[in-house]
Amino acid sequence: EVMITKEESVLEQYKKIKPVEVENEFNYKSAGNIYEIRINRPQIVGFHKKETEELINKTIGKDIDEYVKDMSFIKEVEEGEERVSSYNFFIEPEVLANENGVLSISLDIYEYSGGAHGNYWSQFYNFDLLRGQEIKLKDIFKEDVDYLELIYKHIFEKIKDNEIWTA
């Protein structure tokens, strides 16, 4: 009841949109035990709305470029510095949904810059292919709904009886 509902005619338009084609542009760089960078950059190709295709590629590409820029320090080696293991930075995309006019992609990111273990996180993207826009959480709920409160309550409901949290 708090979700935005679409008229049936609009839903039919979404059902007519064919899945987009996602190709990966692979980039690999390595320098001995100094660094290893593997980036699999998703690219939307052949979509009938070029401006939507460009929006998706630009949005995801901009974030990937920022991650790469932030990790550029791993290539630098101080004079006389020896590394026991190389620094690693990997980006691997996954298409989570590609139907009914919605494209969802995750970027799974791994960074190891020394120490006991690396860091792993994911960045998620959702696109409305009919409107040619990125879908934000606020777009899914009616304007007067405190959706963060609803989400928090839902999460706490799901975990409150989990034995990991109650032990």
Strand content: 25-35%
What coarse outline follows from CA principal-axis ratios? flat
Low-confidence stretches: none
Question: Mean pLDDT, as a whole number?
Answer: 86
Distance between the termini: 35 Å
The overall strand count is 6
Kindly state the percentage of residues in helix.
Answer: 25-40%
Please give the count of helices: 4
Please outline the major beta sheet: 6 strands, mixed
With strands numbered from the N-terminus, the spatial order across the biggest sheet is: 1-2-3-4-5-6
Helix-strand sequence: HEEHEEEEHH
Radius of gyration: 21 Å
**SS-derived structural category:** alpha+beta
Provide an overview of this structure:
This protein is 29% helix and 35% strand. It has 167 residues and is α+β, with helices and mostly antiparallel strands. A six-stranded mixed β-sheet has the order 1-2-3-4-5-6, with helices on one face. The two termini are 35 Å apart. The model has no long low-confidence stretch (mean pLDDT 86).
Reconstruct the topology from this structure:
Layout: H1 8-16, E1 21-31, E2 35-45, H2 50-70, E3 87-99, E4 102-112, E5 119-128, E6 133-134, H3 147-160, H4 163-166
Parallel strand pairs: 2-3
Antiparallel strand pairs: 1-2, 3-4, 4-5, 5-6
Nutshell version of this structure?
The chain is built from four helices and six strands.
